[in-house]
Prior knowledge:
By secondary structure, the protein is of the alpha+beta class. The protein is built from two helices and five strands, in the order E-H-E-E-E-H-E.
Amino acid sequence: xxxxTVMSKKTYKVEVDIPSCCGYGLCAAxxxxxxxxxxxxxxxxxSDIVPDDxxxxxxxxxxxxxxxxxxxxxxxx
Length: 77
Protein backbone atom coordinates (compact mmCIF):
# COMPACT_ATOMS: atom_id res chain seq x y z
CA UNK A 1 0.00 0.00 0.00
CA UNK A 2 1.29 3.44 -0.81
CA UNK A 3 0.67 6.29 1.51
CA UNK A 4 -0.02 9.77 0.32
CA THR A 5 0.97 12.66 2.51
CA VAL A 6 -1.25 15.69 2.28
CA MET A 7 0.80 18.77 2.93
CA SER A 8 -0.87 21.95 4.06
CA LYS A 9 -0.30 24.77 1.66
CA LYS A 10 0.03 28.33 2.83
CA THR A 11 -2.26 30.90 1.34
CA TYR A 12 -1.67 34.59 1.84
CA LYS A 13 -4.30 37.18 2.60
CA VAL A 14 -4.05 40.97 2.33
CA GLU A 15 -5.74 43.33 4.74
CA VAL A 16 -5.92 47.09 4.30
CA ASP A 17 -7.03 49.72 6.80
CA ILE A 18 -8.69 51.70 4.01
CA PRO A 19 -9.83 54.68 6.15
CA SER A 20 -6.18 55.24 7.11
CA CYS A 21 -4.86 55.09 3.52
CA CYS A 22 -3.16 58.35 2.56
CA GLY A 23 -3.11 57.63 -1.18
CA TYR A 24 0.63 57.48 -1.79
CA GLY A 25 0.10 54.70 -4.35
CA LEU A 26 3.44 52.98 -3.83
CA CYS A 27 1.71 49.65 -3.22
CA ALA A 28 -0.07 49.85 -6.59
CA ALA A 29 3.12 50.91 -8.35
CA UNK A 30 4.91 47.81 -7.02
CA UNK A 31 2.06 45.28 -7.31
CA UNK A 32 -0.81 46.59 -9.45
CA UNK A 33 -2.27 43.11 -9.78
CA UNK A 34 -3.22 43.16 -6.08
CA UNK A 35 -3.39 46.83 -5.07
CA UNK A 36 -5.77 49.01 -7.07
CA UNK A 37 -6.39 52.72 -6.64
CA UNK A 38 -9.80 54.34 -6.82
CA UNK A 39 -10.45 57.72 -8.43
CA UNK A 40 -9.25 59.44 -5.25
CA UNK A 41 -6.00 57.47 -5.15
CA UNK A 42 -7.12 55.31 -2.23
CA UNK A 43 -6.19 51.63 -2.30
CA UNK A 44 -8.77 48.90 -2.73
CA UNK A 45 -8.60 45.16 -3.29
CA UNK A 46 -10.51 43.15 -5.88
CA SER A 47 -9.58 40.06 -3.85
CA ASP A 48 -7.89 39.69 -0.49
CA ILE A 49 -6.26 36.37 -1.47
CA VAL A 50 -2.79 36.60 -3.01
CA PRO A 51 -1.97 34.19 -5.85
CA ASP A 52 1.21 32.15 -5.30
CA ASP A 53 3.07 33.92 -8.08
CA UNK A 54 2.43 37.38 -6.57
CA UNK A 55 3.37 36.78 -2.93
CA UNK A 56 6.75 38.51 -3.07
CA UNK A 57 5.36 41.57 -4.89
CA UNK A 58 2.36 41.78 -2.56
CA UNK A 59 4.62 41.75 0.49
CA UNK A 60 6.96 44.32 -1.06
CA UNK A 61 3.97 46.54 -1.88
CA UNK A 62 2.69 46.28 1.69
CA UNK A 63 6.12 47.06 3.15
CA UNK A 64 6.44 50.12 0.89
CA UNK A 65 3.33 51.76 2.36
CA UNK A 66 4.42 54.93 4.22
CA UNK A 67 1.20 54.87 6.26
CA UNK A 68 1.73 51.18 7.14
CA UNK A 69 -1.93 50.30 6.56
CA UNK A 70 -1.36 47.07 4.60
CA UNK A 71 -0.61 43.64 6.04
CA UNK A 72 -0.02 40.35 4.26
CA UNK A 73 -0.49 37.29 6.44
CA UNK A 74 -0.21 33.57 5.85
CA UNK A 75 -3.31 31.50 6.47
CA UNK A 76 -3.59 27.73 6.35
CA UNK A 77 -5.51 26.37 3.39
